[in-house]
Amino acid sequence: MMVLKIISGDDLFSSxxxxxxxxxxxxxxxxSMERFVTVSRKRLDAFTNVDVSxxxxxxxxxxxISSExxxxxIxxxxxxxxxxxxxxxxxxxxxxxxxxxxPQLITIKFSTDFDTIWQQSWNTSKGxxxxxxxxxHGKDKSQWGxxxxxxxxxxxxxxLGDMWPQWATYIPDKETxxxxxxxxxxxxxxxxxxxxxxxxxxxxxxxxxxxxxxxxDFRNLVITxxxxxxxxxxxxxxxxxxxxxxxxxxxxxMMRLRSLIAYGRRQVDDDDDDDDDxxxxxxxxxxxxxxxxxxxxxxxMRLKISWNHDNENENLKWVQVFETYDPEExxxxxxxxxxxxxxxxxQLCRGKAKKSVxxxxxxxxxxxxxxxxxxxxxxxxxxxxxxxxYNIVSDAESERIKAAAKSELKxxxxxxxxxxxxxxxxxxxxxxxxxxxxxxxxxATGLGTRLTEATGLDCHQGAEDLQxxxxxxxGLYVPHYDYSRDKFKHGETRGRKMGDRLATLxxxxxxxxxxxxxxxxxxxxxxSPVKNAALFWYNLKADGRGLVESLHGGCPVLLGHKWGKxxxxxxx
Length: 572
Ligand SMILES: O=C(O)CCC(=O)C(=O)O
Ligand SMILES: [Fe+2]
Hints:
It comes from Paralvinella palmiformis. Keywords: Dioxygenase, Iron, Metal-binding, Oxidoreductase, Vitamin C. This is Fe2OG dioxygenase domain-containing protein. One of its GO terms (molecular function) is L-ascorbic acid binding. This protein is an alpha+beta fold. It has 3 domains: 2-176, no CATH class; 215-300, no CATH class; 344-571, q2cbj1_9rhob like domain (Jelly Rolls, Sandwich). The strands form 9 sheets. A 9-stranded antiparallel sheet has the order 10-11-12-26-22-29-18-17-13. The chain has a 5-stranded antiparallel sheet with strand order 16-19-27-24-25, covered by helices on one side. The longest helix has 29 residues, at 248-276. The chain is elongated, with a radius of gyration of 25 Å. 2-oxoglutaric acid binds at residues 469, 477, 482, 506, 518, 552, 554, 564, 566.
């Protein structure tokens, strides 16, 4: 006898066509649990020996199928629900369609080794059929990536009891699941992804996903967008929902959401008005009644809106980055640039870079070491210098560095500009690790020498420990400075006495299919990752003070993975 336990909750997840035998799905937030259960049961009718029970888990909705002899889901069709994760790790939910009665292992993987399968599915028009089932089975689970948070996620633990250890591997944590929606929203926003295409053909750039996003997927994105205060985007998304499906209950729901969006927009406008000291004379201001209606509606959806969410205030945030920089110096950023704020970053990410110089030439280096080595150098900017050095790393070195780093990657943090503490933020989505003592590592001896030759800076003793970073789909690092702002632990990096970061070398260990450029908003420069090339820039001026124009960031990865290795050369 198989048992399908549905753990009901109030959070969301973006897969819509919930083939039953499937386990992680999204509850209709505005609808009822019964609706899902009905669907589930109906689908389950296709199978014998399945017992359905519903448990209030207070978390995400998860259905679990188990049996005494095996644990699995039913069917063999493969689908993907999601394209990004909160930490930039690609999450693939393989939905199993009930076309076969043979139980299969549930497959939700978080690992990069799934890339091959992912690629195959992009590359074949009928990826779903052509994926070899064997790809999913019999693999060492330890390769499937980390889901550390899961063990703290009690509802599942309680319900699953003894089965917990077995299932823990398959269940994504709550933050990740919500992050998936956020990530997708950010990608839509930054890259202006065509919503209709995503819905009709599942097309992103020149590639097609295995399946398009459904009306229900978009509905879920609307809800996340509202809760993040992204009202303009939410409004666009409601149109897509309606274009894709004219189901009356969905239409009603969209009507309702649109009034929430309208309310939200008024709130934001009111805030702006407050800044201007112009009171509510336009008559648009919200009344207490509106507030109550809004709160109730949000409550019904069990959502809390965050008015201070990054996006609508992103411009502001970026301006703060400028303003927190060394106030004594009193440098000033032109007003118009402040206003453009984060938009410049996004424009550059979309490929709107205007390169001021393009001097591609070859250099032959006769270094201090007894060998000849040459590489192509492209100066993307001259004053200050930003240079792409091609083929500075070999394929073998790249692969060895990635392999050495893989098992130790952790979610990357940033230093808070206000407190100096390390914090996890959505402004840096990616994983990284430090390769300790790389100078003495056999991996690095040749490389360090080559880099020293190429940059003219001491990349051995003068450099920090090596940092290896990986960004999955949606991974990014918003514009920031690599040098420290004086008040924080200047001169000390990871326990070692060091100077400030004079220059950075970002070595790209992979190509990125789309997105993921390194951009310099104040210089209008964008560099697309090229495997084995290194991007070199200065962070400090000759006198050791911060170089304002070195403000830079990594754009969200749209397709593929971006691997990088950072070397920062220090200044005494
Ligand atoms: O990912 C990038 O392109 C830039 C990374 C970066 O700026 C950093 O890690 O400090
Ligand atoms: Fe940086």
